[in-house]
């Protein structure tokens, strides 16, 4: 810690029952009261150094023994600073340190103890000490900022705080031992200040976060000013974001998971202030941290606009999140475990930010219109959302409209494969047996049968919990698979007469003939199925009939040749035409 002794005399003052008295003179002619303390002093040492004290003493009233009494309650830092001022006026030694220089400087300015009034006055000596000893040293500057909290308002007016924070910002940017060249010198009140070591760029052999711990000890007001100084100097936004996260993790109150959300307003404001310091650039702040802030904001019952801004911010970089991040707890009056509406808004924001209307419309028409980068973004989003849907599908309190809206957050046509979407919808139907047939129809309309893999399509055909219409569509698509396979075999000249002893030719011929036979059988069965469907639709009282759609379909066809033929058909996999 930097220190400096000024003055020649020692031991002039002593304290007696909150009253400072001078040992050198028996009788004092001035009594100055400062916030609970009294100072028995003499006029002339005081009025020689401060025009403010001169005016105060001159205008004060005196009693019979010529003792003038005056009050000085507004002096920055109160009696503590005035004690140093009085000692300086009497020529007593005072020790300047990083912990007292700023409050004392504010008091000296308040008393107008300038060089113009008296040569070698207190302000000039304090400014030299501040410039040469404090601002050039990282640790001393931190200590000085801590000490100015009681006089923060006055120090702000004198721009002392700005000088300290600017000094720290330069060191955080270029290195702890950074100094300014003469043409780059910073100035405060006309006095330049610099460090003693040559410049050193941050990151060259040192960690980028070396200053996080020290800076996090500052009050929120000073920390905000420091971050603002870093930003104006063009510091790396990633480093700034990490510094804010470090500050938030260190000082934000740990929250009780059982809280009802009725938190003090000052805690909510504290969280909003911290988040406002995060750089706005996309991807600079981790999505995981933003989600944790969102969860905390919901628990604190924060401002609605603030929560909305967080959702939009997360929505711009949702592809960087993980499955666990999406489980935002629902702390409102609803019964749902997770806040599905919040996730829906975030996903819609992501789609809005990354895909324009023409791209969505184009892909909905089964055309490849997305760039390679957007295709990767889309794949990450689809995998994330469908995985989330599958996890929340077993929440029995998740109502139909919420699940439908969430599943529909990604417009139809943007998924390349609907396998995971089908599994999520199937899980939701299984866990919500109270769903009506109409609701099942609506939710299954989101599944594009043509976007299902062959194995999943076979599973759909045999899934009795699904609406009949979906099962029939899957059945027809399976037939299309077989037909496409047959055409492909014909185009490859793999169906031919059995000629010669080659075993391979015989096998290919047999496979081709089997496919042709199965295809003819499927056509007949599907024609019969269409007739039966039309007949049942024309029935006057469908509800009273003893044969339901599902039971009819299962009894008529699941045991028949159609399904057997489908299950017996060879898997053509990637050879199926889209």
Describe the protein's architecture and organization.
There is one protein chain. The chain is an alpha+beta fold. Helices cover 53% and strands 7% of the residues. The chain contains 25 helices and 10 strands. It has helices at residues 43-47, 51-59, 78-89, 101-110, 122-134, 138-147, 152-157, 160-174, 212-215, 220-232, 237-251, 265-276, 287-299, 304-315, 340-354, 357-364, 372-392, 400-407, 419-431, 437-444, 454-461, 468-491, 503-537, 549-558, 561-568, and strands at 3-6, 13-16, 19-22, 30-34, 37-41, 61-62, 68-71, 94-97, 186-188, 191-193. The strands form 3 sheets. It has a 6-stranded mixed β-sheet with strand order 2-3-5-4-7-6, covered by helices on one side. Strands 1-8 form a two-stranded antiparallel ribbon. The longest helix has 35 residues, at 503-537. It starts with a strand and ends in a 10-residue tail after the last helix. Residues 7-11, 181-206, 254-261, 494-508 and 540-578 have low confidence and may be disordered.
Radius of gyration: 40 Å
Shape: rod-shaped
Order of strands across the main sheet? 2-3-5-4-7-6
Average the pLDDT over all residues and give the rounded result: 76
Give a count of the beta strands, DSSP E runs of length 2 or more.
10
Strand composition percent: 5-15%
Secondary structure: helix percent: 40-55%
The main sheet comes to:
6 strands, mixed
Q: Between the first and last Cα atoms, what is the distance in angstroms?
A: 76 Å
Uncertain runs with pLDDT below 50, 5 residues or more?
7-11, 181-206, 254-261, 494-508, 540-578
Structural class: alpha+beta
The number of distinct helices, counting runs of at least 4 residues, comes to: 25
Pfam families: BTB, NPH3
Domain NPH3: 209-481
Coiled coil: 512-542
Family: Belongs to the NPH3 family.
């Amino acid at each position: 810690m930097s220190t400096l002794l000024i003055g020649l005399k020692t031991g002039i003052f002593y304290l007696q029952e909150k009253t400072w008295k001078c040992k050198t003179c028996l009788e004092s002619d001035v009594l100055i009261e400062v916030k609970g303390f009294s100072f028995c002093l003499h006029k002339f040492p005081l009025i020689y150094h401060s025009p403010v004290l001169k005016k105060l003493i001159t205008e004060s009233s005196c009693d019979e023994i010529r003792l003038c009494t005056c009050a000085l309650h507004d002096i920055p830092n109160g009696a503590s600073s005035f004690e140093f001022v009085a000692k300086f006026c009497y020529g007593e030694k005072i020790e300047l340190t990083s912990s007292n220089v700023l409050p004392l400087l504010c008091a000296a300015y308040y008393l107008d103890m300038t060089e113009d009034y008296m040569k070698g006055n207190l302000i000039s000596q304090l400014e030299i000490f501040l410039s040469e000893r404090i601002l050039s040293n990282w640790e001393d500057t931190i200590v000085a900022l801590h000490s100015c909290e009681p006089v923060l308002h006055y120090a702000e007016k004198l721009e002392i705080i700005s000088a300290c924070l600017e000094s720290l910002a330069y060191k955080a940017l270029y290195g702890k031992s950074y100094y300014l060249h003469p043409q780059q010198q910073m100035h405060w009140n006309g006095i330049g200040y610099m460090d003693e070591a040559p410049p050193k760029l941050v990151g060259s052999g040192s960690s980028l976060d070396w200053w996080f711990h020290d800076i996090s000890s500052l009050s929120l007001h000073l920390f905000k000013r420091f971050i603002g100084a870093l930003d104006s100097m063009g510091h790396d936004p990633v480093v700034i974001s990490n510094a804010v996260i470090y500050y938030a993790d260190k000082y934000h109150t740990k929250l009780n998971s059982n809280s009802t959300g009725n938190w003090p307003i000052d805690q909510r404001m504290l969280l909003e202030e911290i988040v406002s310091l995060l750089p706005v650039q996309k991807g600079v702040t981790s999505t995981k941290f933003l989600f944790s802030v969102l969860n905390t904001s919901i628990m604190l019952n924060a401002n609605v606009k603030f929560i909305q801004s967080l959702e939009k911010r997360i929505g711009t970089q949702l592809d960087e999140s993980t499955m666990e991040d999406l489980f935002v707890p629902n702390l409102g009056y609803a019964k749902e475990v997770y806040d599905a509406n919040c996730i829906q808004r975030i996903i819609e924001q992501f789609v809005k930010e990354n895909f324009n209307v023409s791209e969505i419309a184009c892909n909905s028409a089964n055309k490849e219109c997305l760039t390679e980068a957007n295709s990767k973004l889309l794949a990450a989003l689809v995998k994330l959302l469908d995985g989330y849907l599958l996890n929340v599908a077993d929440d029995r309190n998740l109502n139909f409209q919420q699940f439908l809206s969430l599943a529909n957050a990604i417009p139809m046509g943007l998924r390349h494969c609907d396998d995971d979407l089908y599994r999520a919808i199937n899980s939701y139907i299984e866990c919500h047996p109270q769903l009506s047939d109409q609701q099942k129809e609506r939710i299954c309309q989101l599944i594009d049968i043509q976007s299902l893999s062959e194995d999943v399509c076979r599973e759909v055909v045999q899934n009795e919990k699904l609406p009949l219409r979906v099962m029939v569509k899957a059945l027809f698509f399976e037939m299309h698979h077989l037909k496409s396979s047959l055409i492909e075999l014909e185009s490859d000249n793999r169906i031919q007469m059995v000629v010669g002893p080659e075993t391979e030719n015989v096998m290919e011929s047999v496979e081709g003939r089997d496919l042709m036979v199965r295809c003819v059988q499927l056509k007949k069965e599907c024609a019969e199925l269409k007739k039966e469907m039309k007949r049942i639709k024309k029935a006057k009282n469908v509800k009273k009939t003893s044969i339901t759609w599902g039971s009819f379909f299962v009894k008529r066809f699941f045991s028949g040749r159609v399904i057997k033929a489908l299950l017996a058909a060879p898997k053509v996999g990637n050879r199926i035409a889209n």
